[in-house]
Amino acid sequence: MAVLRLFAGARDAAGTGRDEVPGATVAAVLKAAQDRYGDAFTAVLDHCQIWCNGEPCAANDAVGDADEVAVLPPVSGGMA
């Protein structure tokens, strides 16, 4: 199982910042996460960047047990 790391709104929607999720590809891991966390997570996922092991990735990239898939929602902020 891959380690799924969730940040900001994705973490809030899923109710966790880290989980182990099955899947042989990035797309399969994300589908399993959608099934596990539901509609609120799916809505956030549509606006996120997905990285694998610290690098941008494609949906069809292979994922193994030692891999980390990160869901990174857009972030805003700064100093006023």
Q: Which percent bin holds the helix content?
A: 25-40%
Query: End-to-end span in angstroms?
Result: 42 Å
Q: Strand-and-helix sequence, N→C?
A: EHEHHEEE
CATH class: Alpha Beta
Largest beta sheet, briefly?
A: 5 strands, mixed
Radius of gyration: 12 Å
Task: Tell me what you see in this structure.
- The chain is α+β, with helices and mostly antiparallel strands.
- The protein has one domain: Ubiquitin-like (UB roll).
- 32% of the residues lie in helices and 25% in strands.
- It has three helices and five strands.
- The protein has helices at 8-14, 26-37, 39-45, and strands at residues 2-6, 18-21, 49-52, 55-56, 68-72.
- The chain has a five-stranded mixed beta sheet.
- Strand 3 (49-52) and strand 4 form a beta hairpin.
- It starts with a strand and ends in an 8-residue tail after the last strand.
- The mean pLDDT is 93.
